[in-house]
Amino acid sequence: MRQLGNVFNRGKCLISFVTAGDPDLETTRSLVLALEKAGVDIIELGIPFSDPQADGPVIQAAGQRALKGGTTLSKVLDLARSLKGDIKTPLVLMGYYNPIMSYGEERFARDAAATGISGVIVPDLPFDGGEDFYSMLDREGVDGILMVTPNTEEDRLVETGRRAKGFVYCVSLLGITGQESGFHEQMGEYIARVREHVSIPLSLGFGIDGPEKAARVASMVDGVVVGSAIVRLVEKFGHDRKELENKVTTFVTSLKNVISP
Fold it and tell me: Of these residues, 22, 55, 143, 245, which one is catalytic?
């Protein structure tokens, strides 16, 4: 697999997040195709979970809707498999460790690779808590993407730089995704501190809800992640697939215009 590093060679990347199965898996599939057509560079598929600690109310609600509709990790992998021959945009799974543990780490790593997944983000599994798991992903050719925050200590940044694959996900604030409180006050210093120890691309996410914020950070990082703002559109227009695709395409185009003018 190993597609993620190559994507960043083309320039600044827009990374989008959608909760798989919200409002249903068929809509998620059509939305992924629309996101690729609109120019998104990497697409994160969120695995719904009942206790998403890092997610704000928007993504929490999306996860609950997906779970209520019967979405499981197995069905998310089936969705990825169904997309394998239809898209070229790399897919990344983002989800919590509990469903992966229940599914089985080795089975998950093997199936993720077989379904065409390029990377996996597990917010509640740091590198030193999941060494075996990240090694399994690596053997299967799937990038285990690590996260850092503004208060990540120096020694952990050193280890992150040594272990990271694909890209490093830099959380823009101290808190949950979808917050309105804004970015970390010393954003430039924070990103510069991460770059001292990490040689692979850096992507910034949490709290980026439109072109204005995307433009503010695009020059500092290699990729910009937008999640809750897209999930809000799904919540509002998910009952009308065509309207949803139009709204998301317009929104994504506005982001691409400021990230890669």
Answer: 55
